[in-house]
Amino acid sequence: MDLTNNLCDGLSDYCIKSDIEERFVNMPLENLLTLIEKIQERINRHGDALRKSEALTRYTLIDPLLRELGWDTEDPALVKPEYGSGKGFADYALFSNDGPIMMLEAKKLDESLVGARRQAVDYAMDETGIKTRYLSVTDGACWEIYDTNKPVADMLAASFDLKSPSAAAECLKTLALWRPSVISGQIAVGETPVVGLPGDQPSTTEPRPIEETTLQPDSLNLAEDGWEPLSEFNPQTGDPKPTEILFPDNSQVSVRSYKSLQVETIRWLISNNILDTDHCPIQGIGKAKRYLVSTNPTYSNGKEFITPYEIGIFHIETNYGGKIIAKNVRHIIKHVGEDPTQFKVRLS
C-alpha cells in the first residue's frame, strides 16, 4: 500500500477520535497569553474576512504566534515560506541547524484540515521515507502537530484551538510549538518548557518556566475525584462552578465558567461528527423560542443572538445563567442522540 495514502488515512481516522488531554493549570506566560487573547479578538472581529483569505489568516493569526514562540518569520535560517519538499511546496518549513524539522501547511480560517494533512504528509515524506521529524496543519485557530517518528496511531503529538473560551489553557498547549521544544525533539503539551538551545543567547522573549502545575490522574476514579454525571448536575445560586468536563471518549477539558461548559460540550459533539447541520436549529426547552445552536445567529423572529459564540459555521447562544445552561446542555446532548449520563462534570 502506498505509504502516503496509508499514513493520511490513519491520520484522518485518528484526528476525529483524538484530543489532547488537559494536564495543567496556572500559566504565568503573560506575553503569550496576551497574544492569544489578541488573536481571539481578531477572529471574532474579522472572521468573515479571514474565512475568505489564506494570506490574511497567515499574516494576522499564524505568523504572530510563530514569532512569539521563537520562530522569526523574517529569518530564513529559521522559517522559509513556500519551501519545496517531497511532492510540492510547504507553506512553511521550520528549520533547526540540521535542516528542516517541521513542515507546516496552512489554510484559511475554518477551512477543513483534511486536505492539509495529506499535503503536509507529502511535504514531510517521499518515496525514500521521512524527510522531517514533524508536520503540522492549521487554519490559524485549530492546530495539529504530528511526530513522524511514531506509529500512525500515536503520531498526534499536540493539538490546540485558539477559539476555545479558555485562552489560558490554550496558552499552555501552544508551548508544543516553542522552538527549543521542537528542535530538542521533546514536544509536549503543558510541560515545563526546555530552557534553551545549546549556544543560544538568553532571550527576554522566551516563555518563562511554568511555576505551578497540577497533574490530572491517568485513571479517574469518578467518585473519589468529584466527578458528577451531567444528568444529575443541577447547580444552584452560590454553588461551586464547573472546572472540568469529561466526555464519553475519556477526553477531558478544563472549563472556567458555565458558558465554557456549554461551548466545550458543543465543540466536542461537532468535532466527533455527532452534531451537524441537520440538527439545526436546536430550539430551547419547552415553549422557548430562542435557539441554542444554529447555523445562523438569528432567531425565527429575526432578532439576533444576544451573546453568540462561533464554532466554524455553528453559532451558539450563551446568554443564560448556570442552572439554565446545565439544562440546555443536557437538552442538546439528547437532541443529537447521546446520553447525558456519559458526560461528567467536576466542580471547583
Instruction: Work out the number of β strands.
Output: 16
Give the distance, in angstroms, between the N- and C-terminal Cα atoms.
50 Å
Low-confidence stretches: 6-28, 191-224
Give me the side-by-side strand order of the main sheet. 1-2-3-6-7-8
Rg: 21 Å
User: What is the 3D form?
Assistant: elongated
* Residue share in helix: 25-40%
Q: How many distinct helices?
A: 8
Structural class: alpha+beta
From N to C, what is the helix and strand string?
A: HHHEEEHEEEEEHHEEEHEEEEHE
The percentage of residues in β strands lies in: 15-25%
Overall residue-averaged pLDDT value: 78
- Oligomer state of the chains in this structure: single chain
The largest sheet is:
6 strands, mixed
What would your notes on this structure say?
The protein is an alpha+beta fold. The chain has helices at residues 3-17, 30-50, 54-68, 114-124, 167-173, 179-184, 258-271, 322-335; strands at residues 79-85, 88-96, 99-106, 125-126, 129-130, 134-138, 142-147, 156-161, 227-229, 242-246, 252-254, 282-283, 291-294, 308-311, 314-317, 344-347. Strands 1-2-3-6-7-8 form a 6-stranded mixed β-sheet, sandwiched between helices. A 4-stranded antiparallel β-sheet has the order 9-16-10-11, with helices on one face. Strand 10 and strand 11 form a beta hairpin. The N and C termini lie far apart (50 Å). Residues 6-28 and 191-224 have low confidence and may be disordered.
